[in-house]
Amino acid sequence: MATKRLQDTRSYSENVRNSILDRRETSLFKKAEELSIFCDVEVAIIIYRPGKIQPISWKSTSLAHDVLTRYLSFIEFKRLKKLVTHEDYLLKKVEKKEEQISKLEKMNEANEMKILFNQLVEGKSIDELDTREMKGLLKLFAAKMDKLDERKKELNQPPNPPSNKGNSTFSASPMEESFNDPWFIQTKATLGDGSGIEPKPKEGNNVNVEDDGHSKDLD
């Protein structure tokens, strides 16, 4: 539910302010009754109007006096433990909004650097970048290199030795399949490790693979 924008009513006449106060009181009492029913708590409201001696109490003067008396009977530590002032409430709201804005700014910056990276790959000159864009790209490159190093460590781990239980036939391990993966071969060539490695052709029963990549049936 969207909140209405508050207006400064100090410049209004007294009759207008009293009319607004009456409507606000009715709405406040309704919310307090809903809170007391839904949450099963005791709620009391005491409102002092400017220039009035007797306050406005909800639900009744006796009930509001009883709730206030029991509240003041607690020691100050317990009374202030869960006390929230309007200023503290607004400060928490502001901090939460600032945190959300900061997260959005970081996400937007990351997406912007990805787009800029793709533009450089497509031929954009690096001389056109400013200092902020250069720093963002350096962070992006560092993150990509970290992911690439993690991938290399995973692929360089030795495969698990086969188990001797029974005479079961085991298929190729995921690590062995990864060694024949085109991405792995290209990455190794780019990093200078294993440059020029080509995937070994699979041997078949009736097929001979020649150097030109075409198969020839064996007679």
UniProtKB/TrEMBL annotation:
- Keyword Nucleus among record annotations: yes
- Keywords, in A-Z order: Coiled coil, DNA-binding, Nucleus, Transcription, Transcription regulation
> Main subcellular localization, coarse class?
nucleus
Q: Does the keyword Nucleus apply?
A: yes
Where does the record place Polar residues bias?
163-172
Q: Where is this region: Disordered?
A: 153-219
Enumerate the spans annotated as MADS-box domain.
1-48
Task: Tell me the compartments it is located in.
Answer: Nucleus
Name residues in a coiled coil.
87-114
Q: What GO terms are given for molecular function?
A: DNA-binding transcription factor activity, RNA polymerase II-specific; protein dimerization activity; RNA polymerase II cis-regulatory region sequence-specific DNA binding
An annotated GO cellular component of this protein is: nucleus
Q: Which InterPro entries match?
A: TF_MADSbox, TF_MADSbox_sf
Name used for this protein in its record? MADS-box domain-containing protein
To which species is this protein native? Solanum pinnatisectum (tansyleaf nightshade)
Q: Which lineage do the record's taxonomy fields give for this organism?
A: Eukaryota, Viridiplantae, Streptophyta, Embryophyta, Tracheophyta
